[in-house]
Design brief:
Structural class: mainly alpha
Largest sheet: none
Radius of gyration: 16 Å
Number of strands: 0
Number of helices: 7
Number of domains: 1
């Protein structure tokens, strides 16, 4: 049994509630969290914004290029299977971009926990394979550091 099947095959009411919450509200939770860390982020915020734009464009391109079907099956814990392609995980990419953004700060632990929870929840919900999430994580980290390099050289 592979990791994706094992994780997606688990059935816990608590994990389902948490995973569905993350699925539906991630794009609200992360930006709102920036409000609490405002004093520490001003210099790095532009790198994060550019990184998110890179993720949006590259995710769209890679999904169309690879056209990987989602692993959705009878174990799907969402109401329906997303209709777009699986590879890479945009949720994981965004979470890991925020994690990279937080390096060297006291809120790194917060974003680390969010990134891990997002990654596991994508597989648990049956909407991504393990390699989709890993690729998304790598894409998020690389996009942030490329953005930071562009900003510091500009």
């Amino acid at each position: 049994m592979d990791v994706t099947s094992f994780v997606a095959g688990q059935n816990s009411g608590f994990l389902t509630v948490i995973s569905v919450f993350i699925d539906q509200y991630l794009y609200l939770i992360l930006p709102i969290s920036l409000i609490f860390f405002k004093r520490k982020i001003d210099g790095k915020l532009m790198s994060l914004v550019i990184s998110l734009l890179i993720i949006l464009a590259s995710s769209f391109f890679l999904k169309g290029l690879f056209q990987t079907s989602r692993p959705c099956d009878a174990n799907l814990k969402l109401q329906s299977c997303p209709t777009d392609y699986s590879f890479p995980s945009g949720h994981a990419a965004v979470a890991f971009a925020f994690l990279s953004f937080s390096l060297g700060s006291w809120f790194f632990v917060f974003y680390y926990l969010i990134a891990i929870a997002v990654s596991i929840s994508r597989i648990y919900l049956g909407v991504h394979f393990l390699n989709d999430v890993v690729a998304g994580a790598v894409m998020g980290v690389i996009s942030y550091f490329v953005s930071q390099k562009v900003i510091t050289n500009a």
